[in-house]
Amino acid sequence: MIEICEVGPRDGLQNECKVLPTNVKAELILRLIDSGIRNIEAVSFVNPKVVPQMADAEELIKLLPKDRNVRYGGLVLSRSGLDRALKTDIDFLHVVTTTSDSFNQRNAKRTVHQAVEELSKVIKEGAEANKGVAGVLGTAFGCPFEGEVPLSRVLSVAEKFIESGCTEITLADTTGMANPAQVHQVVSAFYEQFGKDFSLGLHFHNTRGLGLANTLAGYQAGVRRFDSSIAGLGGCPFAPKAVGNVCTEDMVNMFHGMKIETGTDLNKLLETAKWMETNMDRPLDGMLMKAGIA
Ligand code: ZN
């Protein structure tokens, strides 16, 4: 059995040019729940001026059903994000930093060290406020500006986040640079340092076509939690180099074909993907929605 963390409503829609109305986002999440998804990254508490797609976080959370045994996550990148998140009843904070100085300077105007110092306090306060806290480490498999990101740095940021109170870590391949051999190596090193029982998730983008290959490599290395995005949302053709996450229903099709359970209904996911396409004014990247279930 694997666990899917559906990130379409957040990572997917954030990287689409079209801004969806809040009620359509809420319907998307309801459809995902009806398809069996139980872990959803629903919102991001980022500056609405920088990311207008996510400006309605508080409003959207109010529309989500609370009685469906679903865990809702919200992205937090700073103290101001934490302050907003704590005023809502979001279940899990997904606290994010990248592990490359160049990338972090461009995106958050601070070094990795500075980010980790601030975010360690954010993690502690989130945990003290009884929120679940997951750490998400971006560019963990490479940085478009620096190239290789040393594994020792990735592991030391993970260590600091875990010490501060993260009960989960997700390693994210932000710009699609990972390959399967590397995934195996990084996951093995992570488990060696933090133990096989620590909850590790993987987040891949399909930027260079290796999303599912990397997912499978992670599975074979022992990982059981994967982020993905319905219909492969997130590849706005007008946003340079933005390519969507691993596509949820394509990933589910792979695992079901391998007789590995996902807790989801593939037909319903496919319907949701097709419905989503009608909302986006462009063909979406999912393969199964074009080819159908074999
Ligand atoms: Zn991502």
Question: Can you describe what's shown?
Answer:
It is a single chain. By secondary structure, the protein is an alpha/beta fold. It has a single domain (3-291), classed as TIM Barrel. 44% of the residues lie in helices and 16% in strands. The chain has twelve helices and eight strands. It has helices at residues 8-14, 22-34, 57-63, 79-86, 101-108, 112-128, 151-164, 180-194, 211-220, 248-257, 266-280, 288-291; strands spanning 3-6, 39-44, 71-76, 92-98, 132-138, 168-173, 199-204, 225-228. An eight-stranded parallel beta sheet has the order 1-8-7-6-5-4-3-2. The two termini are 21 Å apart. The mean pLDDT is 95. The site of zinc ion has 6 residues, from loops.
Question: What is the topology?
Answer:
Elements lengths: L2 E4 L1 H7 L7 H13 L4 E6 L12 H7 L7 E6 L2 H8 L5 E7 L2 H8 L3 H17 L3 E7 L12 H14 L3 E6 L6 H15 L4 E6 L6 H10 L4 E4 L19 H10 L8 H15 L7 H4 L3
Parallel strand pairs: 1-8, 2-3, 3-4, 4-5, 5-6, 6-7, 7-8
Quote the CATH topology: TIM Barrel
- Percent of sequence in beta strands: 15-25%
Count of helices? 12
Profile the largest sheet.
Answer: 8 strands, parallel
Choose one word for the global shape: globular
Helix content percent band: 40-55%
Bound molecules: zinc ion
Order of helices and strands: EHHEHEHEHHEHEHEHEHHH
Low-confidence stretches: none
Computed over alpha carbons, the radius of gyration is 17 Å
Secondary-structure-derived class: alpha/beta
Calculate the terminal CA-CA distance, rounded to whole Å: 21 Å
Mean pLDDT: 95
CATH architecture: Alpha-Beta Barrel
Structural domain count: 1
Strand order of the largest sheet: 1-8-7-6-5-4-3-2
